[in-house]
Amino acid sequence: SSANTANLDAAGVFSTSVDAHNTITVTADGDVDNTDLNSAMASIVLNAGGNVIGTDSTATTTIDYMVNGDVLNGSTSAGDDIDLMVDGAITNLLATTDGGDTITVAGAANAAALMVDGGVFTADTIAITASNGVGSENVVSLAGAESITIANTVLGGVNVVSTNNNAVTTAVTSAGAGDITFDENGTGVLTVATMTAETGDIVVTADADVTTQNVATTVDGDITIAVNDGNLLVSGTGINATGADAGVDLSVTGEEEDVT
């Protein structure tokens, strides 16, 4: 359907296409499935009591999801910020802003999303709060992010690939059992403001200079930082691996590269 402003209120929304000049608001007690939403000049607000499956949302300003179930496949493309408040799992979602904007992932009724698995998130700033893993089964790709904050609050660990030729600052914390794997691709300098894992290993790889300010395993886990064609500067509180057999492995490759 096509309209100036669209308000869709239903038990469930299935195989529907909505085009509007201004804001689109969708409220469903159940699922939103195989639906296309396109706001030509404004925002999209989607509230679902169930799951959002295979749904594509495109807006020139903001996109706000409030979902009590899962978000599976589909895409969100916005000219401004994207807020994904999802109590279930977010799996294989393509979330894209047009630069200089923020993608926020957290829970709807809960403080955290259940998990984020697979998918690609593109924004200048990315903030993810999940309880049971970020990329625990399939790596999560982060594109163009200069600020990355990830808090995994229960278990499952963090497994992400970040791609950027500009400087990147990251803060990653993971509670419970689970490793942190952070791979930085591109020529941007990586600053690890903080990276802590409770029971699990930390592995950081990068293609350019890396500065660490606080890297630690707090109960048991090894720490590996490998830099290709860049220097490694250890600052702040240093790099601390906890556990009876825990170790730290720092390496740099390339001509005249150093660990300091």
What can you see in these coordinates?
This protein is 0% helix and 59% strand. The radius of gyration is 20 Å and the shape is elongated. The chain has no helices and 31 strands. The strands form 3 sheets. It has a 13-stranded parallel sheet with strand order 1-4-7-10-13-16-19-21-23-25-27-29-31, with no helix packed on it. A 12-stranded parallel sheet has the order 2-5-8-11-14-17-20-22-24-26-28-30, with no helix packed on it. The chain has a 6-stranded parallel sheet with strand order 3-6-9-12-15-18, with no helix packed on it. It has 260 residues and is mainly β. The mean pLDDT is 95. The termini are far apart.
pLDDT averaged residue by residue:
95
What is the structural class?
mainly beta
Instruction: Please count the helical segments.
Output: 0
Biggest sheet strand order reads: 1-4-7-10-13-16-19-21-23-25-27-29-31
Radius of gyration: 20 Å
Question: What is the helix content?
Answer: under 10%
End-to-end CA span: 61 Å
Oligomer: single chain
What can be said about the biggest beta sheet? 13 strands, parallel
> Approximately what portion of the residues adopt beta-strand conformation?
over 45%
Morphology: elongated
Low-confidence stretches: none
Report the count of strand segments. 31
